[in-house]
Amino acid sequence: MDLRLPSIRLAHTRRPRPRSGRLVRCGISEPSGEPAPVGQKTKYNDGFFERAFMSLFARKMEKFGGDAGGRGGNGLRWYDYEGFVDVSRRVMQGRSRKQQQEVVSEVLPSMLPPGAPAQFRKLFPPTKWAAEINAALTVPFFHWLVGPSEVIEVEVNGMKQRSGVHIKKCRYLENSGCVGMCVNMCKIPTRDFFTNQFGLSLTMTPNFEDMSCDMVYGQIPPLFEEDPVSKQPCYANICSVANPNSTTCPKLQG
Fold first, then answer.
1. Does residue 89 come out as left (phi exceeding 0), alpha (psi in the -120 to 50 range) or beta?
2. Among 224, 8, 3, residue whose Cα is nearest residue 131
């Protein structure tokens, strides 16, 4: 039986996604609460709590990617966002697509208290209400990771609901400049984490033209082989490990 739901329809206009992957990174925009235009890098003013989340996540990843910078004198190293992305990049190197996803899938549950997934399933059964609550919580709690976002109305299985989140310009994709890191270390592990650990389906659809992304809670994601992202080429001009001669990002093939 095919349990996958029909494709969602977003309530806002989407631009087409060209597959050239050719963006040019330029200067840094001053912080304004909104992401910088394509071609400019958004500037963030991270505070204590943002740095704490970055450092916690990065330290969890260190054992897989190595600690290139060493630890601080108190045994705990504080990371900025660039350092957090650098740890992710080191985890990616030398690993296949599946291995990269497995690392993040192991790290994500380790950041939660024991028994948290089971409690989540009790509090948030897979209903429209649960999907909408999680969309609302994503905006403030994931701002440090993905940047500014907003809740949007979507259509899931013929039903309109406010369980979508539009990430205006993903901070992780913007800073890594890497299609493979976006897919293998964010999109796939995050959707599998919510779907398998929390029992709440999640679909993530990045737009590699403007670096935005749509998250839809309650929508069962497609198989990787059927997802257009599986054929996405590199950002030839901004990715440090890009292969401009390949029609598909090599990190999506292994």
1. alpha
2. 8
Mean pLDDT of the chain: 85
Residue 7 has pLDDT above 70, yes or no: no
Return the bridge partners of 204, or none: 215
Count CA atoms closer than 13 A to 20's CA, side-chain side: 8
Secondary structure (3-state) at 154: strand
Q: Please give the distance of CA 93 from its chain centroid, rounded to a whole number.
A: 18
Alpha helix positions (H), the chain = 48-65, 81-92, 97-110, 116-123, 128-141, 143-146, 171-176, 179-182, 188-192
CA–CA dist 16, 31 (Å, integer): 28
Strand ranges across the sheet with 159-167: 9-10, 149-156, 159-167, 212-217, 202-207
Global pTM reads 0.82
At 127-177, the pLDDT tens digits run: 999 999 999 999 999 999 999 999 999 999 999 999 999 999 999 999 999
β-pair type (9-10, 202-207) = unpaired
CB 249 within 8 A of CB 34: no
Burial of 117 (0-12, 13-18, 19+ CB in 10 A): middle
3-state secondary structure of 150: strand
